[in-house]
Amino acid sequence: MSGWLTVVGLGPGDDAMTTPQVSATLQAATDVVGYSKYVERVPERTDLTRHASDNRVELERAQFALDLAAGGSQVVIVSSGDPGVFAMAAAVFEALEQGPENWLSLDISIQPGISALLAAAASLGAPLGHDFCAINLSDNLKPWALIETRLRLAAQAEFVMALYNPRSAGRPHQFARALDLLRECCGNKTLISFARDVSKPSERLQTMTLAEAKPDMADMRTLVIVGSAYTRRVGRYVYTPRSVA
Amino acid sequence: MSGWLTVVGLGPGDDAMTTPQVSATLQAATDVVGYSKYVERVPERTDLTRHASDNRVELERAQFALDLAAGGSQVVIVSSGDPGVFAMAAAVFEALEQGPENWLSLDISIQPGISALLAAAASLGAPLGHDFCAINLSDNLKPWALIETRLRLAAQAEFVMALYNPRSAGRPHQFARALDLLRECCGNKTLISFARDVSKPSERLQTMTLAEAKPDMADMRTLVIVGSAYTRRVGRYVYTPRSVA
């Protein structure tokens, strides 16, 4: 049997949100590759080799998986959420672009998963009911000035914003700066939601105005959703109406 | 047993992309409410009443479902894709806001699905690998001028853009206008992808430069993805690198 590589999304944490398509692909695999916390979510089998790696080594991990597939293995790379949203799918194509010519004839596919932004929105209500954007707040792969520019333009466009990787131990001050900028561009009354560990037993949701938001409400396990001027509460829910009228 | 209302996303079309969570909810329901094409995707059962309605009557459909749940039924509203992205979840909260006080104590929840944008991105490769936005091009619920403003700001922010409802029989000229605007703001060489009937047997994917794109390549069953300046091809795939360097 010839090798293949499929990049799958396991969803945000609850196994009931992993699609049957992805589960079937995992069943057919000989090798699973990924960040250790995601590889651990794949059930052990005697005929499955699990290759767990550290976080932040995406490109090497992608190269390793492509090499395994080129050697005839049936390989799955696992991502949390959706593999195409700030996750492993883009890293695989970067590795493919830089790799040997014969990798281009490999059978490579991507299978979507429930992304953190969809799961967080569902738990909160319907904050993404109107036009929205998704911005990765980490400056590992782009300059911080560009992130600030995008936040300003997104506010001007009145997009609801889903903010990934809002705050890490290595850069604790940037999210404070982002909050100041958002207060300046969107106004103090705009709603902001912090969704941590969505769909897991430890899920925690907090919604407040930008005036009340504090930087330490977010960490790397938090998805932040900043509303537009239209985003509001009804009962215990947060939603953005479909219409701007 | 007391009533409840859950709004679920069936995913883009392939049943293998419907989450086990959503399938279990449909099994537990007494009533399914939705646009006829989506209700048809729910298997018939003797103890399940299927209420199929016309498209574009979202608010009445939401009110009908809330009323059924208030009367003690176990009600599911079905959306295609994800219910929170240009679908029924926001309409339910609009109806809740306008409805009788007692609806606020109802057990209402949202269960995410694989959205068209995630499924289209996966079929194409990884075009959403960097910051992105989602814009509904229909001017049924917002002025066309606002749509143009958002396209301009999104281009300025270098967001990859997922464009929903690009073109309908009732407004065939607006997508031509949008393409002209995108050529002006993003340049002729920017890649654009048309993903029609994603995940269905009739799936069709086309990628080209903005210079080559024609308005009639899109219809209401097409999700359009406009790349950033960094979006490119590798082999048969389209992807946006994680880094802007």
UniProtKB/TrEMBL annotation, chains A, B:
Pathway assigned to this chain's UniProt record: Cofactor biosynthesis; adenosylcobalamin biosynthesis
Q: Which UniProt keywords apply?
A: Cobalamin biosynthesis, Methyltransferase, S-adenosyl-L-methionine, Transferase
Report the EC code(s) recorded for this entry: 2.1.1.131
- GO biological process, any: cobalamin biosynthetic process
Please state every residue range assigned to the domain named Tetrapyrrole methylase: 5-213
Q: What class of enzyme is it?
A: transferase
Among the GO molecular function terms of this UniProt record, one is: precorrin-3B C17-methyltransferase activity
Organism superkingdom: Bacteria
Q: Supply the CDD domains for this chain.
A: Precorrin_3B_C17_MT
Under InterPro entries, the record lists: 4pyrrol_Mease, 4pyrrol_Methylase_sf, 4pyrrole_Mease_sub1, 4pyrrole_Mease_sub2, Cbl_synth_CobJ/CibH_dom, Precorrin_MeTrfase
Q: Which NCBIfam families match?
A: cobJ_cbiH
Q: How is this protein named in the record? A: Precorrin-3B C(17)-methyltransferase
Organism, by scientific name, is Granulosicoccus antarcticus IMCC3135
